[in-house]
């Protein structure tokens, strides 16, 4: 898994996605990292297997 941050806010919260790293199976999942580094998967929209978070 590769972690790709997209943006950070003033409180130190980071949004981005996790990626399988395999272009043949592009599995992206949106994630939010708290200021202390704790990750939270944000899930996907109904019927969509992939997601990404952006500020």
Description of the structure:
The protein is an all-beta fold and 55 residues long. It has one domain (2-43). 0% of the residues lie in helices and 44% in strands. The protein contains no helices and four strands. The protein has strands at 2-8, 14-19, 28-33, 39-43. It has a four-stranded antiparallel β-sheet, with no helix packed on it. A hairpin with a 5-residue loop joins strand 1 and strand 2. The radius of gyration is 11 Å and the shape is globular. The two termini are 22 Å apart.
Outline the fold blueprint:
Layout: E1 2-8, E2 14-19, E3 28-33, E4 39-43
Antiparallel strand pairs: 1-2, 2-3, 3-4
What value does the Rg take, in angstroms? 11 Å
Number of domains: 1
Q: Please outline the major beta sheet.
A: 4 strands, antiparallel
Question: What proportion of the residues form beta strands (DSSP E)?
Answer: 35-45%
Q: State the helix count.
A: 0
Residues in helix, %: under 10%
Oligomer: single chain
Low-confidence segments: none
SSE succession: EEEE
The average pLDDT is: 86
Q: Order of strands across the widest beta sheet?
A: 1-2-3-4
Main features:
55 residues, mainly beta
In short:
The chain is an all-beta fold. It is built from no helices and four strands.
């Amino acid at each position: 898994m590769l972690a790709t941050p997209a943006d950070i806010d003033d409180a130190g919260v980071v949004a981005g996605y996790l990626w399988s790293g395999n272009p043949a199976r592009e599995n992206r999942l949106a994630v939010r990292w708290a200021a202390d580094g704790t990750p939270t998967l944000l899930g996907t929209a109904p019927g969509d297997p992939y997601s990404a978070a952006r500020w």
